[in-house]
Amino acid sequence: MKPISKPASTTSASKPAATAYEETASGIDERKFVVALARGLDLLRAFRPGESMLGNRDFVERTGLPKATVNRLAYTLTVLGYLRFDEVLGKYALDAGVLSLGFALLSGTDTLELARPHMRVFARDVGAAVSLGCRDGLDMIYLETIRSETALTLGLASGSRLSMLTSSMGRAYLAVQPEEARAALIAELTRAAGADGARLAADAQREIAAFAEARCCFSFRDWHDDVNAVAVPFREARDGRWLVLSCSGPASSMGEAVFRERVAPKLRALARRLGDSA
What we know:
The protein has 278 residues and is an alpha+beta fold. It is 45% helix and 18% strand. The protein has 10 helices and 9 strands. Residues 8-21 have low confidence and may be disordered.
């Protein structure tokens, strides 16, 4: 069945993306941090779901790095097997080295294996898509998505990124962060979002404030014009990191009342089964 079209970009900013180094610079030990490595990883992060090829100009625009730096990093990543260069097109594609890292992550996530069968049942039950995700830089990233076979669903898959300010998943993650860390992160997200940052941050903070009572966060047409969603955070049992479960569906057929009264309680119950929910 045809999926709902997604926004042109699922990243949180329209201007050139900040490097991972810039995003975390205030909280790192400069003596231990390898800037060159961080910049190389930024090139790999520049690929978005559905994109198979990027050129040097794309890397420069998305990372903000100088062209000469991009050239050296791309060459190094190609030699190491993380990028593949197409001589005819003059562009790079992700290579098998990245795939092996992804498989290592997913195969090492016990919670994901535990969650999949429950997510399948949940998706069939509510007639929507259910996803499991975590933070990646200034975005949230899907680790897994399972779609209902009976309803229109988002065309997003594992590896897709969502805005932390406009998505229910991002808001739920922010809601369980320590107050000082949350304030600093929202400030960084506001700056990265540019002209719309203050408005988006205000909308997110209203949902975050309601988390104490609702124990979940909603996004009603905020991330996409025809998408409603709810998300619940929980701590992974093995290492204590925060993961987030979300459920999304078309706003045209699944209104706010459906998510508040039917979907949210079921999602909170699933989060409790998978870990220590907030």
